[in-house]
Design goal:
Length: about 220
């Protein structure tokens, strides 16, 4: 139906599910617990690696000698888990997945997050089985913008990069997809500057903006 498109590859954090928002919220709440304001402008890194150590170091420096990391960590994770208990797919995403199923287009996840994180969330939402192929950050040497996780997903799909489309929410994710040779549709998460998505072939406000069929028709 869509000439040249044989598979769709989705990022996870901030794209399929808005875990970037819950990440920020649990850290902002932990800073507020100490009477401090978190600087959102410097919170998100320009890569997909785990930045927890840097965030704890920043908070410890701001709090001073009385900072108890173990207690702080336990409190933050407890709050994060409460937020995640009711977190569902991002707006419009379930409709897109339904469309892909109706069109018999294989789906993959290519995330820099570890397997347990991504599969735990998708299982909770009942959506893990939608993705016949999954590639994770703990299976490749480097995080996005390195294309490794996309190349792994493509090998498992058995589809050439030129016949797959990636969906991303960050500039470095879009750069990783393009470096792997895929076309890329970007849906910037709320904390990303839309002007930075120069690598993407299409930039949308959300998955509710257009049907999946419309997006794929434009790309094909």
């Amino acid at each position: 139906m869509f000439d040249g498109i044989e598979a769709l590859v989705f990022d996870f954090d901030g794209l399929l599910m808005q875990t970037e928002s819950t990440l920020l919220e649990c850290w902002r709440t932990e800073w507020a617990h100490h009477g401090l304001d978190l600087d959102v402008s410097t919170f998100f890194a320009d890569h997909a690696g785990d930045t927890s150590e840097q965030h704890y170091a920043d908070l410890a420096a701001a709090v001073g000698p009385g900072y108890d990391r173990a207690t702080s960590h336990a409190r933050r994770i407890a709050h994060r888990d409460v937020l995640h208990a009711s977190l569902d797919l991002a707006p419009g995403m379930r409709r897109w997945l339904d469309e892909a199923a109706a069109l018999s287009i294989p789906l993959a996840v290519a995330s820099s997050s570890p397997r347990a994180w991504v599969e735990g969330h998708l299982n909770r939402c009942g959506e893990l089985s939608r993705f016949t192929v999954r590639a994770y950050g703990d299976e490749v040497p480097d995080h996005k913008p390195d294309p490794g996780v996309y190349l792994l997903a493509l090998r498992r799909l058995g589809v050439p990069a030129s016949r797959a489309v990636a969906f991303e929410d960050t500039p470095y994710g879009a750069a990783a997809a393009k470096a792997a040779g895929l076309r890329c549709v970007a849906i910037p998460n709320p904390y990303m500057d839309r002007t930075r998505f120069t690598a993407a072939d299409m930039v949308l406000h959300s998955a509710e903006q257009q049907s999946l069929a419309s997006v794929l028709s434009s790309l094909a």
